[in-house]
Amino acid sequence: TMIVMELTPFGVFALMAWVAGTLGTDALISLAQLVGLNYLGCLLIIGVIYSSMIKIIAKLPVVDFFRGIVDAIAVSYSTASSNATLPVTLRCVERNLGVSNSVASFVVSLGATINMNGTAMYLGLATLFGAQIFGVDLTFADYVLISITSTLGAIGAAGIPGAGLIMMALVFGSVGVPLETIAFVAGVDRIMDMMRTTTNVSGDAAVAVTVASMTGEIDRAEMISADDV
Ligand code: ASP
After folding, report:
1. Under 8 Å CB-to-CB from 33, ≥6 apart: which residues?
2. Which of 53, 70, 170, 196 could form a disulfide with 118 if both were Cys (CB 3.0 to 4.6 A apart)?
3. Atom of ligand 1 nearest to the CA of 84
């Protein structure tokens, strides 16, 4: 592992050089757009879907929710691993948001493995990116297939850095997008992985809070208020 870690910067440099040399520097602009869209998609999931769940179903203040999980957000962004963040997510959800231990330990632990909305979105995005770069025509049935395989891929992906990259082969294979796309995006995958992991981890916390409030397993007085932070 140490040898691989030491060699990674050289490998990434070689991949980027291959991309620029084979497809021209314009390809690097496409990669920058992919990174930007990945961040935008994740922010939409967090800002629209999770916030609506917290506001409408759990009936809790959205700002207090995000303040409560700020440690989990920081750790997930820096480690790019849902599994490594699991203890911090559990602590935030129980201590800061008042979710009972029984709900938190079940929902958050299960979510760290199977609830990966950021990864699912990214797999779909990367497939469309590969199809455009390599000129693959997609039909409506292909889009449906991409949605299904991306979701299954995200469920199957482990909560570790780079798991989404490996799952791309599954989605690409289902609609005939060349596997070379994986080498193409590998150089910038880590920076996207950080954001999708943050999306995955915030989703676990949002679901735990929502389930706890639906089942009456949340101590609302425990939830930190914005003034306490
Ligand atoms: N790193 C992500 C996670 O741990 C999985 C992925 O690669 O998308 O949640």
Report:
1. none
2. 196
3. 4
